[in-house]
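1st attempt posting a full record on here, be nice pls
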Amino acid sequence: MNPHTEHFVLPARLLHWTMALMIIAMLFIGAAMVSTVSTAHSTLVAWHRPIGSAILLLVLLRIVVRLRHPPPALPSDIPAWQRHAARLSHWLLYALMIAMPLIGWAMLAAGGYPVQIFSTLRLPPIAPHDLHLYTVLHRLHTYLAYLFLLTVLMHLAAAMFHGLIRKDGVFRSMAS
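the predicted structure (as tokens):
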């Protein structure tokens, strides 16, 4: 690790762990939404939309923090292919954290559904009302959710590898 920056800055760590909880919640809520037709569906939707909106806002803030405070360097003994994989997976996570809420928002607009954030805020539509577009965006949102889940699982596996097997400080740089 770079001796000058052994840890992520506090705002980056707070955003990381807050968003991790929100994303895990969203994955479970999304899975529950598509597997139920009960009255719980509307409650799940009522939670899914504001959490997705919050994730979008937080990831934009997180990008600003990351640009202003670069992450600690990886240990010098990590192979180049793993460094490359780490960089790509992080940017994929950022891309998905931006794309998923925007696609969900556009999908709802295309379906003619309002994006109500609690009872006080309604987001404007960002796509035209078009049922074909709604279908395409719904599929895309679903496929990207699976990709998001796989990417989160790989990220978690890498964190466990660094924290439990290598014990090289990579996990500790975000955890403390």
